[in-house]
């Protein structure tokens, strides 16, 4: 499959990418309903019967003016090394197996990573680290994620985030997290086979515990603090147990300073797999 950055393909698209334009993996069409506020999102999410429908509506979400402006401005100004390529410039939907027993939770798309490629943890150093570890654990089909057309798939694993738009300074505001929590809660509730979650960083950890409370799941009190290797358990109303595992985020800051090493990440991913499959 031809990678998306190939100039022949790049010339077919503008930035941001319009729904239904033919971008590889775009779940939306020109007819996908656009939620422009939290109330719209809740109403539309309730009518999404499949994960594909949910992904499509997430990918055209426009409820947070600051994030909409930022993600689209970045898609136009671009980074120098990508100046001749189109940027996705829209909310980035979740990625992976809709029947997953494992979930990896990040924070939000990177401005020149997923906001460029349209796929979670794709096209930057964080993705290089994460997908290599997932490949070594037989979860990802390949060790590198270049763009949305590279053919990568995940087995028994899904990657989701509390926020689907690239935020300024990689830091969404509390009101933006609350608005996007509609999608986050809905997706966690739909993952009925879920057995283990790996939270990349403190925001992923606290967002997961908060979502669990909103969904009526049992959460330990006092709330367990995030830490690399920390574990806690959530109990769904049906009695099923979900183990939550903490892992330092695969950010450049953490990996370049060796706060997170490759062996630490490998251990966390292998633990996630073992928790979900044994």
List the keywords:
278 residues, alpha/beta, Uracil-DNA Glycosylase, subunit E
Can you lay out the helices and strands and say which pair or pack?
Elements: H1 7-10, H2 38-46, H3 51-58, H4 65-77, E1 95-96, E2 102-105, H5 114-117, H6 125-136, E3 157-160, H7 174-190, E4 196-200, H8 202-214, E5 231-235, E6 241-247, H9 252-256, H10 262-277
Parallel strand pairs: 2-3, 2-4, 4-6
Antiparallel strand pairs: 1-3, 5-6
**Termini separation (Å)?**
35 Å
In the predicted model, the low-confidence regions spanning at least 5 consecutive residues are 1-9
Level-2 CATH architecture: 3-Layer(aba) Sandwich
CATH superfamily (homologous) name: Uracil-DNA glycosylase-like domain
Estimated structural class: alpha/beta
**DSSP summary: helix tally:** 10
Strand content: 5-15%
Q: How would you state the average pLDDT, rounded?
A: 94
Structure write-up:
- Keywords: 4Fe-4S, DNA damage, DNA repair, Hydrolase, Iron, Iron-sulfur, Metal-binding.
- Belongs to the uracil-DNA glycosylase (UDG) superfamily. Type 5 (UDGb) family.
- It comes from Cutibacterium acnes (Propionibacterium acnes).
- With 278 residues, the chain is of the alpha/beta class.
- It has helices spanning 7-10, 38-46, 51-58, 65-77, 114-117, 125-136, 174-190, 202-214, 252-256, 262-277, and strands at residues 95-96, 102-105, 157-160, 196-200, 231-235, 241-247.
- The protein has a six-stranded mixed β-sheet with strand order 1-3-2-4-6-5, with helices on both faces.
- A hairpin with a 5-residue loop joins strand 5 (231-235) and strand 6 (241-247).
- It is globular.
């Amino acid at each position: 499959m031809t990678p998306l950055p190939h100039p022949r393909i790049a010339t077919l698209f503008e930035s941001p990418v319009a729904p239904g334009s033919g971008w590889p993996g775009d779940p939306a069409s020109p007819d996908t309903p656009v939620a422009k506020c939290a109330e719209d999102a809740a109403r539309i999410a309730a009518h999404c019967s499949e994960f594909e429908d949910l992904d499509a509506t997430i990918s055209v979400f426009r409820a947070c003016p600051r994030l909409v402006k930022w993600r689209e401005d970045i898609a136009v100004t671009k980074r120098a090394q990508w100046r001749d390529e189109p940027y996705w410039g829209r909310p980035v939907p979740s990625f992976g197996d809709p029947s997953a027993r494992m979930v990896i939770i990040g924070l939000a798309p990177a401005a020149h990573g997923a906001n460029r490629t349209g796929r979670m943890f794709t096209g930057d150093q964080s993705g290089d680290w994460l997908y290599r570890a997932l490949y070594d654990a037989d979860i990802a089909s390949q060790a590198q994620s270049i763009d949305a057309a590279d053919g990568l798939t995940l087995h028994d694993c899904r990657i989701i985030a509390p926020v689907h738009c690239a935020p300024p300074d990689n830091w969404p505001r509390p009101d933006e997290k609350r608005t996007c929590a509609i999608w986050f809660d809905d997706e966690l509730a739909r993952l009925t086979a879920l057995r283990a979650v790996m939270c990349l960083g403190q925001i992923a950890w606290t967002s997961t515990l908060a979502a669990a409370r909103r969904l009526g799941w049992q959460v330990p009190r006092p709330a367990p603090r995030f830490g690399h290797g920390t574990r806690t358990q959530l109990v769904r109303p049906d009695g099923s147990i979900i183990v939550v595992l903490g892992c330092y985020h695969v950010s450049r800051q953490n990996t370049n300073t060796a706060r997170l090493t490759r062996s630490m990440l490998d251990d966390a991913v292998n633990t996630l797999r073992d928790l979900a499959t044994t």
